[in-house]
Specification:
- With 320 residues, the protein is mainly beta.
- It has a single domain (2-319), classed as YVTN repeat-like/Quinoprotein amine dehydrogenase (Methylamine Dehydrogenase, Chain H), CATH 2.130.10.10.
- Helices cover 0% and strands 51% of the residues.
- The strands form seven sheets. A four-stranded mixed sheet has the order 1-2-28-27, with no helix packed on it. Strands 3-4-5-6 form a four-stranded antiparallel sheet, with no helix packed on it. It has a four-stranded antiparallel sheet with strand order 7-8-9-10, with no helix packed on it.
- A hairpin with a 6-residue loop joins strand 13 (147-152) and strand 14.
Length: 320
């Protein structure tokens, strides 16, 4: 299931996890849980899969499928960030939230000896994307009809905080900032926005006739990710350039010239000090401090990179 490769720049080791060897056909997206012990996969045909990951602490991993109900029509799947310490008097357990049809399905595993079960179903018309704030206290969802919602999920039952229509036909990516709880999202037309909630108008991040300063107007946003603690945001999309945004800064936009070709498939923060850029050439690791590339891991020809997780000097890269 996994093979090893070495970074061309630094002596870091990468383990490639090939989903096709586990029977997953046409995988579209994959997400690790924060602790790396589970992997959720969505396929082009809507089929969903959950895997238990063993040996994700620098070893060659072992991957085992997990039985899960309702594995059809998955649009997106994301784990709520686990907290190592207990919350109040109640210990946190693994939780998976799946965008499925007109609802978000909340799966839980309340102990390692229990099966994953459906905890609740949260209504959300035509839901397409789901995301959590880094502390796991807020959940955001966006739909194919342009609707966005944010819930507080720190209580027993999710409490809706605000809902809004973006005016766009379909939202494909969504993220919540840790610094100010702002919502960032990308649309099927390649645009990207910042939203502060409620009846406020979304703020476009791309330049236009009315706003000459911003991301290139002829660039399409396909992926975005918020820093786990600060007001920074990384975006990727058409072309090999990624973009680093720092809100409320004198120099908010910094281009990141990657070695990718075609387009950037995904961007994600691996820690406070490191983020990853995923594209057709492989995985690039970048420093959040210097905003320079520190490592590069190529992937075999014909393989698509879907997810990455770093543990010390080992990167686990999911391909399909």
């Amino acid at each position: 299931m996994a093979t090893k490769t070495v970074s061309r720049k630094l002596e870091k080791v990468a383990c490639l996890i090939d989903l096709s060897l586990s029977g997953v056909i046409q995988a579209r997206s994959a997400r690790f849980s924060r602790l790396g012990n589970f992997l959720a996969v969505s396929s082009v045909d809507g089929a969903g899969s959950l895997f238990r990951m063993f040996g994700m602490c620098g070893d060659q991993p072992t991957v085992e499928p997990v039985e899960l109900p309702e594995t059809d029509n998955w649009q997106d799947a994301v784990f709520r960030p686990e907290v190592l310490a207990s919350v109040g008097n109640k210990a946190r357990y693994p939780e998976l939230f799946v965008a499925r049809g007109d609802e978000i399905v909340h799966f839980t595993q309340k102990s390692m000896l229990c099966k994953w079960t459906v905890e609740r179903k949260i209504p959300m018309p035509k839901v397409r994307a789901v995301a959590f704030s880094p502390d796991g206290q807020l959940m955001a969802a966006a739909g194919k009809d342009g609707r966005m919602k944010v819930w507080a999920v720190c209580q027993e039952e999710p409490e809706e905080i605000w809902s809004a229509l973006s005016g766009e036909s379909c939202i494909t990516e969504v993220a919540i900032s840790a610094a100010n709880d702002l919502l960032y999202y990308a649309t099927a037309s390649g645009d990207c926005f910042q939203h502060s909630g409620g009846d406020t108008a979304p703020k476009p991040l791309k330049a236009s006739d009315k706003c000459s300063y911003g991301l290139p107007f002829d660039w399409d946003c396909l992926a975005l990710s918020c820093h786990p603690k600060g007001p920074q945001l990384v975006l990727g999309g058409s072309g090999p350039t990624a973009w680093w945004l720092t809100m409320d800064s004198d120099d908010p936009i910094v281009p990141l010239h990657t070695n990718q070709t075609g387009f950037i498939r995904k961007v994600c923060f691996l820690s406070d000090g490191c983020f990853a850029v995923l594209g057709s050439q492989g995985v690039e690791l970048w420093s959040t401090i210097s905003r320079r590339r520190t490592s590069f891991f190529p992937v075999p020809a014909g393989k698509r990179v879907l997810a990455v997780r770093q543990f010390v000097n080992t990167c686990y890269i999911v391909v399909a």
